[in-house]
Structure formats: C-alpha cells, structure tokens
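Could you show me just one protein sequence together with its fold in token form as a worked example?
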Amino acid sequence: MLEENYPYYLANKPAQANSDLEVTDKYTGEVATRVALADAKAIDQAIGAAVDAAPAFGAMPPYERQQILQHCVNRFQERHEELSQALCIEAGKPIKDSRGEVTRLVDTFRIAAEESVRMNGEIMNLEIGPRAKGYRGMYKRVPIGPCSFISPFNFPLNLAAHKIAPALAVGCPFVLKPASLTPIGALLIGEVLAETDLPAGAFSILPCRRDGAELFTTDERLKLLSFTGSPDVGWKLKRDAGKKKVVLELGGNAACVVDADADLEDAVARIVFGAFYQSGQSCIGVQRIIVHQDVYGEFKEKLIKATEVLKSGDPKDEETFIGPMISEKEAKRLEEWIESAVKAGGTLLCGGDRNGPILEATLLEDVPKDQPVCTEEAFGPVAVLSSFNDYSKALDEVNDSVFGLQAGIFTRDLYRMLEAWDRLDVGGVIMNDVPSWRVDNMPYGGVKESGLGREGVRFAMEDMTEIRNLVIRTP
C-alpha cells in the first residue's frame, strides 16, 4: 500500500507544499495517493542549492561517493517488495515486471558504485615535434556541475536511476522532475538519498506540472539537461536549453528481423516478450516483425498461438502479463491506430479489443507502410508482421524509419550479423534477441529522431564530466 501523501525533496530534505498532485492506480483509476507539487519558486531554490553544493560535492573523495551509492543499493534491496508494489500501482506495471525493474534499479546503482572509483584520465606524450620538446601532459575528468533531469512514466525507477546514479558517481548536484503520472518511484529514491551524508543541496526531486517546469530547461545555472520522453517534447527542450549540454533519450519504432535459419521456437518466445512486456510501453519494444518468407507461415502460426494465451488484467495478479496502459486515453489512441490499419487493408491476426485502459496483445499483417502503426511509435501492445526474401532489403526496411534506437536480428549467419551491424542506422543491434534487450552498463541511445548521446552508467558519467588538461614544461 502507498502512503496517504508524499513530500517532495528540496535540497536533500522532505518538504510539503500548498498544492498536491493526485496519483492514480492505473488499473482501477482510483486515486492511490498524493504528492507535494513544486512551484517555480521551489524549482528556483533547488537550482540555487545545487549551485551552492557543487564545490563540496565535486571535492568529495570517490570512495565517499561510492559509500553513498552502496547505501542506496542496500536500502533498495531491503525495500525491494515495497518498491515493486508501489510501481505496480502507480504505473500499472504487472508485478513480475515491477520486480524486474526494481532489480535493475539495484543493478544500476551497483554499477555506479563500482564506476565511481575508476573515472580515470590519461598521461599523454606531447613531444610530437621539436616545438613540444620538454613538455608532457595529462588530463582528468571533473564534474560538469549542476544537472537537470526529466524522467518518463514507463520506467519510473530505473530511468530515473540512469540519471541519478551517474551524477552521484561523479559528484554532480542535480534537480529531477519525475513524470507527473508516476512520481512515487523517484520520491522513494529521494527518501533513501535523504538518509545519506550528501552535501546540502546535492539533490532535489520535484514533481511539477509541465507548464511550470521551464526552469529545468532554460536556467543557465544548469550545465546539463538529460531528458527521456517523447521526441516532440525532447527536441523542443533542446531548442530552449541554451548553452547547456543536452542528452536526449526519445522514441523508437523497433524492428526485429527473423531469417530463414533462425530457431523459430526461440524467436517466437523472445518476440512475444519483446512486443508485449509491460503492455508494450517501451521505446525499444518490438513493433515491426520482418520474417523470411520461407518460414513466415510457420512463424506466424506459432506467434499467434503464443500471443493469444497472454493473460490480461489486474497487474497485481502474479499471472498477469498485459496490464493497463498508462491511461485510457492512450489505449483509445492505439485502438484507433489498429482500426485505421484494418480499414486500410491490414489483417487483424489476434487481439484488438480494449477494456478501459487495457488493450489486448495485438498482431497485424499486410498493413500499408504509411499507417501510423508502422511509421510512428505505438508505445503499446501491438506489432505488425511482414515478410522478405532478400536480406539486404530487409535491412533497408529496418532503416525505413525516422527512428533509430535498437534493432533485433535472428540469424545464425556470422556474415549477416556483421552486415546488420555495419548497415543498420540505429544505436544498438541485438543479435539473436529482441531490440527490447538492455543491460544497464552498456551504451544505450539512438540516432535520428531517437535522440542524442548515450546512457549506460559509465557513458552517462562521461557526459556529466569535462576533461581538464594539465601541461608541464621542463625548462
């Protein structure tokens, strides 16, 4: 059960406000709790506190930052089920998926604890010619300064962790705006951080409405903005961000290719997961399935059978695989996309029915390529099948998207693996698994409309630091 209300965190301390934000149980639609709602004054104070905290936090020895991160690991492990149940309620995420996300939260902080003591520089030979005789050089990485983070609703814990944990590892104070639909996870992280000896002002976690959150983007005291969310919002924020560094993790329209030599049983099992886990609400969820024509009929039959047995319903039920989408509005939007695809000539293979915010796992085929379910990010439990007989053209079809986050290829041919790695215009190519696969220490991010920069703890740490050079002349 959730508490009746939750404070926000301003300069490391819990604080209530004169107004609050209702957080609903996404399955029942009932108000589950309320959280304190920050206004522009609180956000301004938080940024000022982060600026004040930067010198002390940056000077903190790495082993002390590691101890803070390890404290978080220990506390998240102790509160694993509490965090899982909260996530299940506020996001409507099936409880098994919720527990998996908490495990990833722990992993992300553990990785950051490990990396915090090995952010190293390099000694360089500068004597590349007579002019540089007697000179030597070296560089180190230093914290970039106060950071602004905006996290999304679909992974309220782990996608916040992918911003928070690297910042703690390098010594960057931060202000975080969690998604208004799912703020509890970030606030529970704040509750644990408040137990530590971080410098005053090192963190603030402030739920607020989008129209009151401009300072997260525009304030010039902030040195980096990291945003995860929709492309429309992300690119606008980049335009408004001024001189600060910007990292964007945006949408996807992930494709998965199944070649003729693939293990079909394995491919079906993985693709069912990749397309429909957490109700399809993942930017790397499988949306386009491109199958060699020699195995298309067999694969389709197996995939339909595996999809039709997925249980929909209450996310608190241990057997539920498909829970509610984040809102009934989003479920209606995707239902309309499915109907549009069928009217345009596509075939509904299974699913398609909606009950409030719950949309059945849905498979389509023969959908015209200009339909939204093919060109846009569905962000829900729907996937579209098509066939190919020319592998090179299948890769072209993967690339035929404004998005470029990750792609999956099922093949046993090493040369085809390498061709995919060379040719696919995406941030990550996942061989013999779905594009939905991610482990939290790998570089993760996209190209084209899918964003800028890379997350994955060490790679985020690099974005949150700057190189400071030292040159020594021996007279």
